[in-house]
Design brief:
Organism: Streptomyces prunicolor
Protein name: ABC-2 family transporter protein
Number of strands: 2
Number of helices: 12
Transmembrane segments: 117-136, 142-166, 178-200, 237-255
Strand order of the largest sheet: 1-2
Pfam families: ABC2_membrane_6 (PF06182)
Structural class: mainly alpha
Helix content: 55-70%
Strand content: under 5%
InterPro entries: ABC-2_transporter-like
Length: 267
């Protein structure tokens, strides 16, 4: 029975996508356009130079395209199924999370796992196509590929807890759509989704080191393209693991505090 509940929770958002073929077509079209535009942009930026900020053209294109593919891991639309925390808080339906057989924190984790598995299928398919067409470079060695995979796993755990923190803010602010958009933008900017962090000023790079965002994407992609050598990867993996442990404890504490704020008469 527990396995059945877990399966039903994990498939909530992916099932909404699979039952709406136009949304799948739109997602495929959007991902294709993003990859083509990003690859064209970075190739154009490097048309007059060989190396910038320590990156060659092929490294920069590989980084940028893989950042686009990685964004598919947590890009599913929870709002269409009215299962976003912000919506539940607005309509008062968050109380049902506390009446289900699964605890809310476990339901949230299982749902996120289902979303990431579905997103991983998209990302892997896109990666295979980009690799076959020469848009991205392959990893330099099997060791680099293995360390990258481990770093990517840790990065996704950090991203899960960062997104969980953003959702948990709803228990205190109720209507924080603007704040959530700002935080999501900051997460994308500081994690290197829009551009590698090496192109930013030194003060910006120094500031980002004290935040968990770059551990979500910048670190694994830096390992993949060779910006972070394997000799330095151990320290980066350790830092990612520290962020995972800290954020796990902090969000667990917030779950307990959030439960005290839930009432039966609305959000």
């Amino acid at each position: 029975m527990a396995a059945l509940h877990a399966w039903r929770a994990a498939r909530v958002t992916p099932l909404g996508e699979l039952l709406a073929p136009p949304r799948i077509t739109a997602a495929l079209l959007r991902l294709t356009v993003q990859v083509v535009l990003v690859a064209s942009l970075w190739r154009g930026l490097y048309s007059q130079t060989g190396t910038t900020a320590g990156l060659t053209r092929d490294q920069a294109v590989t980084y940028a395209v893989m950042a686009v593919l990685a964004s598919r891991l947590r890009e599913l639309d929870q709002r269409s199924g009215r299962d976003a925390v912000l919506q539940h808080m607005h309509f008062g339906t968050i109380i049902y999370w506390y009446l289900r057989p699964l605890p809310p924190q476990r339901y949230y984790a299982l749902r996120a796992l289902g979303e990431q598995m579905y997103g991983l299928a998209w990302a892997l398919a896109g990666y295979v196509v980009c690799l076959a067409t020469g848009v991205v470079e392959p990893p330099k060695s099997p060791a680099v590929a293995g360390v990258f995979a481990l770093s990517m796993l840790l990065g996704q755990l950090v991203l899960y807890y960062v997104m969980l923190l953003i959702d948990q803010l709803c228990f205190w602010t109720l209507r924080n759509g603007a704040a959530m958009l700002i935080l999501i933008f900051a997460q994308n900017l500081l994690s290197g989704v829009y551009a590698p962090l090496w192109f930013f000023p030194d003060w910006f790079i120094t500031m980002s080191r004290f935040l968990p965002f770059q551990a979500t994407l910048s670190v694994p992609l830096s390992i993949y393209v060779g910006r972070v050598p394997l000799s330095d990867a151990g320290a980066q993996l350790a830092l990612q693991a520290v962020w995972v442990a800290f954020l796990a404890l902090f969000t667990r504490f917030l779950w307990r505090r959030a439960a005290r704020r839930v009432v039966a008469q609305g959000g």
